[in-house]
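Agenda item 2: magnesium ion complex prediction
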Amino acid sequence: MEVLKFGGTSVGSAERMKSVAGLINNPGKKIVVLSAMSGTTDWLVKISNALLKQETENAVKLINELEPRYRKTVEELYSTKEYIHKGNELITEHFNFLLSFTRDMFTPNEEKTILAEGELLSTALVQYYLEEQKVSSVLLPALNFMRIDNEGEPDLPYIEEHLKKELAKHPHINLFITQGYICRNPFGQVDNLKRGGSDYTASLVGAAIYATEVQIWTDIDGMHNNDPRYVQGTYPIAELSFDEAAELAYFGAKILHPACILPAQKRKIPVRLLNTMQPEAKGTLISQASQGHDIKAVAAKDNITVIKIKSARMLLAYGFLRSVFEVFERYKTPIDMITTSEVAISLTIDETIHIDHILEELKNFGTVEIEMNQTIICIVGDFLAEKHGYALRIFDAMKDIPIRMISYGGSTNNISVLIHGDDKKKALIALNEGVFKKVKS
Ligand code: ASP
Ligand code: MG
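Presented output:
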């Protein structure tokens, strides 16, 4: 059985939904995971923010502004009166539900219920379309099997058990549609896997059923070797290992949710990135095996904050690093990069909500400096320890860019370099010229 996930743009209009139906209507058992129509979740966030601020009128206005797009989709998607009617009833039901929140007290818990509407709508619309086209398929409610635990982490054993039960109800069906992103928490309340979480759903579903492959269909032809928004002439990488893909996803390649690799990796299920607009393109295959030993791609992660702690107490002392890290642990703030010297430590963080408290506590150790608006340039590949020259090529390419931190050797898949955010574009272009053009020629 395969798992195919289609993102927001891929189901962003009636026309796109019809292409998705074309891509999934073929022999072979599969579970299809869909995102909300593009822009919908952002809009639902706006609606719930208005409700949280008790701006009822604004919330009503926002809800009413979203509805016509769905009416239009219904008009364009279905060809029979029966399904246009069914589709319109579905829209009425969901928009009345949204409006019901404007008449009552609104709690942060209900926010998640509102955010779930996008995927509930997109999947129901596509399921009706398949029914109208006489394609035999079943809509599996993700809320019946997707679950997170008390820590907000997916509960794979639960998902496995309950998804199997759902599938067993339909032994003769080959095509299943389900919602990405949405789930329940341990109290049974509607929750989600955080923004962009549909990829994560696909990987979890794939892991739960030991799928033969997980396919992530987007609007780009795979993971590129560099950021196409800043650099011309980027190309899709044919093959990546799970570790390489995870580094790239975490450090900025927008195509994949960073957590999404792990469940598939655990069960060695290949993940293929494909393009809905160009279904015949090869895309990127992410699997256990890594192909070739070289620099494969670069990605950039913005809005990084660097913290530098200088302390004479660190000299010849032990336990110092632990005490520093404990501060970050207490405030549940992940550290991305670290470098140390005998009397100083520099580290970077991405999440700054607790920054004031963290700085306050760090001051007990020595002098603390902080700088915002930094960028991590992450260079990914398979860097064999015994082979030389990788670092030279990278730093030669970046010779005109001031470098603030370097992390090399943490894994054989990653070299990270910290630069000022303003130098990002220049760095990505320089690496393209100095590394990839030379690799290709
Ligand atoms: N619809 C959700 C979002 O926009 C989940 C997803 O598309 O992956 O974040
Ligand atoms: Mg996405």
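Discussion summary: Residues 7-8, 35-36, 41, 118, 180-181, 195-198 surround aspartic acid (ligand 1) (CB under 6 Å).
Owner for follow-up: CH.
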